[in-house]
Amino acid sequence: MDIPAMRANFAKAAANGDEVPLYFYSHLFLSHPETRALFPVSMAHQRDRLFAALGEVVARVDDLDTLVPILQQLGRDHRKFGTVAAHYPAVGASLLATLEHFDDAWTPELAKDWSEAYTLVAEVMVAAADEAAEQPAWWEADVVAHERRTIDVAVLQVRPQARYDYEAGQSLSLETELRPKLWRYYSPANAPRPDGLIELHVKARDGGPVSSALVRRVGVGDVLRLGPPMGHLALEPGSDRDLLLVAGGMGLAPMKALVDRVARQGPPRRVDLFVGFRTEQDSYDAADLRRLQQENPWLSVTVAVSADKTSSLEQGDIGDVVLRHGPWSSREVCVAGPAPMVEDTVSRLRQHGVPEQRLHSEVFAPSRMGPSVDGEVTE
Known about the structure:
The chain contains 11 helices and 12 strands. By secondary structure, it is of the alpha/beta class.
């Protein structure tokens, strides 16, 4: 398999922007009309997701130890769309037709390599879906509380109607009947609880149909669908090393879940949580952060603002603030938030002596097909 040639071919297609998913879906729906029912009525928020996910697979096609677990997760997760094994050949045929259409140098060798690679991807995903067949494709969950914290941020409490197992730091996909077939990913802001409640933090994004509905239209008594939990932001098993948790904006949710995990399960350790916002008004969870610090003497919480000189909170980009309070070279570190913040903070901590194997990060970005390989995505 000529992986460099496959990557070059994919790059040629990707360079054509919106024309690529438009061609792909047109080919798929015309050649296999039965697949249209798998997708939302409006494709405006769907078209680029398949190729964004495919690009991540292509980047890791020569690293099967990393790629296979990701594909297995995707296979289990895609059951919620109604995807069955018979759909995969149709998608594969349209994928190859699209890659050929946008490459004047397409060759039989490229076709063979792509066919083999896609067959491997499909086999792994189908096998994982089959193994998960005894579990629900989704879980219905009742909205039991909905609180608007700011004009565009809401905190929801939902209770799955059946047992829903997940781990602190994972994410879950979510669908509301207000936006059918549009699944978006969010991180619970708490570890699993005996009463089953899950806390979700949602920010309405410009052009985000699901996040806007969850913030402005969903209410107590509504029912949401939850997909299988996914994600890789987790603490080292068996370790009692002290923690440094750094969050930017809505990246606070998984950090709170990790704090809750330490509180509920241990082992005892020191935890320093840093949270960065642009302004003090953006700090939507201040009251609960104060509560957490008061209830847990092993926890220190620092909230900082980067563009609010009138605030009494600590000033500066969160990466700068974290380093002012260091050193952190002995800590296990988790960072979550927007890509620039995560990349800057991780780079700074690496330069200041935190070993790579103790740096864990999640990127919160506009939602696509599902969680990215490197981090969390949410609308």
